[in-house]
Each structure stands twice: as structure tokens, then as C-alpha cells.
Design goal:
This protein is α/β, with parallel strands linked by helices and 159 residues long. It is built from 3 helices and 7 strands; from the N terminus they run E-H-H-E-E-E-E-H-E-E. A 5-stranded mixed sheet has the order 5-4-3-7-6. A hairpin with a 5-residue loop joins strand 3 and strand 4 (102-108). Helix 1 (9-38) runs antiparallel to helix 2. The longest helix is centred in the N-terminal third of the chain and has 30 residues, at 9-38. The chain is elongated and about 70 Å long. It starts with a strand and ends with a strand.
Length: 159
């Protein structure tokens, strides 16, 4: 099976903008850095040249990464949104049944996941446990640190 990256249409637009910037503006900036460093003479002991070439390598690596994601992207359109169930692209409020603490998360594809921003992948232990649930449902998350019980308080769709 070919690999797929589940992403929202907003993330797709962001990646396309970044790719355009990298292939135009940033590539020209790095080419100018390399040309300037070359003008300093002997390339074997030219740290500016080495730094510019390293930047160029990072640039081409990021371009290749974005192109790979875009070529295997699957835009998230989930049938769960029609029936109020948790699915990709949803924002949910959950409550830890033990501590009674409430937290808001966005359920995303793996390319957009960022736990520090409360964006969790549908493929994470939490995501697998909550996808398909509705407001009022309880679920158990089997995480590496142990199991814990949660309750879905609210399910909404991102704009």
C-alpha cells in the first residue's frame, strides 16, 4: 500500500505556499549567498561557502519532504462530521474522569500533529481511542504511560 498523509485543506494550502517560497525566494537568497562566498577565493578554507552549501542542502531536503507529502496527500473529509462524532478535523473538549480536568484538542492527520499545540493525530493512542465517539461518550486511552479514562464533553468542526 502506498503511503498516505492525511491533511486538512488548510494544511495543504500552507504546504503549497511554503513550497512556492522555498523554490523561489529562498532558493535565490541561498544562490546569492553561495555566489558571494565564492568571490572570497579559495573554497577549501571558506567557511561562508560551506555554510551556504549546508543551507542549500537543507533547503533541497525540505523541498523534497514537502513534495513527498503533497504527492501522497489525502485531504481530510470525514463522514463523522455529519453525525457529530469525533473525526479528523474536529475540535473536542474532553474531561479526565479521575482529575475532572477539561482539555481542548484538535484531531489531525499525522503531518499536522503537534501535542504542544494540543493537535493530536488520529493515529496516536488518544486519537485511536476517541475517533468515532460523540459528546457524552466515555473512552479509555491505552498510552505508554498507562491507561486513563476520559469523557467527550463537546465535538465541533474546525472552520
Amino acid at each position: 500500500m502506498a503511503k498516505e498523509y492525511k491533511i486538512t485543506s488548510l494544511r495543504l494550502q500552507d504546504l503549497e505556499k511554503e513550497l512556492n517560497y522555498l523554490k523561489t525566494t529562498r532558493e535565490r537568497e541561498i544562490a546569492a549567498m553561495i555566489a558571494e562566498a565564492r568571490s572570497y577565493g579559495d573554497l577549501s578554507e571558506n567557511s561562508e561557502y560551506d555554510a551556504a552549501k549546508n543551507e542549500q542542502a537543507k533547503l533541497y531536503g525540505r523541498i523534497a519532504e514537502i513534495e513527498d507529502v503533497l504527492s501522497h496527500a489525502v485531504i481530510i473529509e470525514d463522514e463523522n462530521e455529519l453525525n457529530g462524532r469525533v473525526g479528523l478535523g474536529c475540535t473536542i473538549v474532553v474531561e479526565d474522569l479521575k482529575t475532572k480536568k477539561r482539555t481542548t484538542y484538535s484531531i489531525t492527520g499525522s503531518q499536522e500533529a503537534n501535542p504542544m499545540e494540543f493537535k493530536l493525530s488520529d493515529d496516536s493512542p488518544f486519537g485511536r481511542a476517541v475517533v468515532g465517539k460523540s459528546a457524552g461518550d466515555t473512552f479509555t486511552v491505552n498510552a505508554p504511560s498507562g491507561s486513563y479514562d476520559m469523557k467527550v464533553i463537546d465535538v465541533s468542526r474546525e472552520g
